[in-house]
Design goal:
Strand order of the largest sheet: 1-2-9-4-7
Helix content: 40-55%
Radius of gyration: 19 Å
CATH architecture of the largest domain: Sandwich
CATH superfamily of the largest domain: Jelly Rolls
Number of strands: 12
Pfam families: cNMP_binding
InterPro entries: cNMP-bd_dom, cNMP-bd_dom_sf, RmlC-like_jellyroll, WH_DNA-bd_sf
Distance between the termini: 35 Å
Shape: elongated
Domain Cyclic nucleotide-binding: 36-110
Number of helices: 8
Number of domains: 2
CATH class of the largest domain: Mainly Beta
Protein name: Crp family transcriptional regulator
């Protein structure tokens, strides 16, 4: 993790995303802009989380734990997503692990010096409610799509969500878990789409060859949103 080296960079990012408009008091002294590299932990489940994190660039993945200790992928998150709100309300709440799938940029708030102000700020609380609603709707739409459409269409939408420069470089086990299909089924999907010259296998994953076809398959899911 690295923080923005200059206040000018932080000011530019805050202005670009109108972040300060979500608060009725001066939040600037408690804010920093951070970047995380691919594979880097943003939040660990052992953290005593005293940060709010607003994702403005990149893709991050959130995990959950089962009683047997197994870790499962909950979802992938893209801008704009807010993390750390439950831990703001419940100081001793154990956070879910969050990992950078690609290079990620966040606007972070150090809540140690402003927690009381945040909890009394109606403007900020409305922002939290709005973000929670949007993230909940997105999660529900994902599960609706997984049950209502063929896995081929859902995989195409997944490709567009997670590709970076046309390359999908994600663990196949995590993609299968995200799509709620078996690893074997995913391998069959990839092989079929490679035979159709929609995708090609490369050392780091799969690359999109036929963008029009991938968009066409994914659009069947998005048309009713």
């Amino acid at each position: 993790m690295k923080s923005a080296e200059s206040t000018a960079v932080t000011d530019r990012v805050l202005k670009e995303h109108e972040f300060e408009s979500h608060f009725s008091f001066d939040i600037r002294p408690h804010v920093r802009v951070t970047e995380y590299e691919k594979g880097e932990y943003i939040i660990r489940n052992t953290d005593q989380l005293t940060r709010l994190l607003y994702l403005v660039q990149g893709t991050a993945k959130l995990y959950g734990f089962h009683k047997n200790g197994r870790q499962s992928l909950i979802n992938f998150f893209t801008p704009f997503s807010l993390f750390g709100v439950p831990e703001l309300f419940e100081e001793n709440k154990r956070p879910y692990p969050l990992v950078a799938q690609t290079r990620c940029r966040f606007i972070e708030i150090d809540t140690k010096g402003c927690r009381a102000g945040l909890l009394q700020d109606a403007q900020f609380l409305r922002f939290c409610c709005s973000m929670a609603l949007k993230q909940n709707v997105a999660q529900n739409r994902k599960y609706m799509s997984l049950t209502a459409y063929p896995s081929r269409n859902n995989f195409a939408a997944c490709l567009l969500l997670l590709q970076n420069g046309g390359l999908l470089s994600v663990k196949y086990t995590e993609i299968a878990e995200y799509l709620t299909i078996s690893y074997r089924h995913l391998m069959h999907l990839i092989s079929t789409m490679c035979e159709e010259q929609i995708l090609e296998r490369v050392p780091k994953g799969v690359r999109i060859l036929d963008w029009d076809k991938v968009h066409e398959l994914a659009e069947e899911i998005r048309e009713e949103e």
